[in-house]
Design a protein that fits this description.
With 204 residues, this protein is an all-alpha fold. Among the domains are: 80 residues, no CATH class; 59 residues. Helix content is 65%, strand content 0%. The protein contains eight helices and no strands. The longest helix has 27 residues. 26% of the residues are buried.
Length: 204
């Protein structure tokens, strides 16, 4: 299965986030309206069966989610407006509890389409049963990111002693280069870490 333009965008997104992979706040993926948690919640409400959402929470929170589910079902049949309000209540309750199990806060549901392309591509690969092309795209994007930052840092290094301004330019390029490599190294050595992370906008 091919990942054309979207796959390349996802790969670039991952490459951009490598440097901040283990230092950023939680990723806003499971709290988007088209994320996997809300999708399972929609299916549960449609089928009037809470089972699909229970995997997203811990055993200790199951009773609370079941209660919220039952309350939602009881209200959503009154009118279309009641249905919309009740459904949103359940989505927010479920996602809030799920985020808490990850040790992360909840800042509200994000609109559909707001999830990072890398996460969307990862979900799509699970559905399609093929990760090979995306994996190649990601590794290529990371490699290119390393080479580009190395070339820039190397070039700036040659003139670093010419002036304070050029020295600062070198330091900026050096930070970009080393932090990107640090992120790639963490990714390689801590690939089993399941904690949600979000790429940082700028390397510190």
């Amino acid at each position: 299965m091919a990942f054309p333009i979207f796959g390349r965008i996802a790969a670039i997104s991952i490459a951009i986030g490598v440097a901040g992979l283990f230092s950023g706040p939680a990723m806003a993926h499971c709290d988007s309206m088209d994320g996997p948690v809300v999708k399972d919640a929609q299916r549960a409400l449609s089928d009037e069966d809470v089972t699909p959402v229970l995997k997203w929470i811990g055993v200790e929170d199951e009773a609370a989610i079941r209660q919220a589910f039952d309350m939602t079902l009881a209200v959503r049949g009154e009118s279309e407006r009641a249905k919309a309000v009740a459904d949103m209540y359940f989505f927010e309750t479920l996602v809030r509890v799920h985020r808490a199990t990850e040790g992360e806060g909840f800042t509200g549901l994000k609109p559909a389409g707001s999830a990072d392309p890398a996460f969307v591509a990862a979900d799509r690969a699970l559905v399609d049963g093929d990760i090979t092309t995306l994996a190649d795209e990601v590794s290529g994007a990371v490699r290119n990111g390393i080479l580009e930052r190395f070339a820039t840092a190397r070039e700036k290094r040659q003139q670093a002693e010419s002036s304070v301004e050029q020295g600062r330019e070198y330091v900026g390029a050096y930070i970009q280069y080393t932090h990107f490599l640090e992120g790639a190294g963490h990714l390689a050595s801590n690939g089993g870490d399941a904690t949600h992370r979000e790429p940082v906008a700028a390397v510190h």
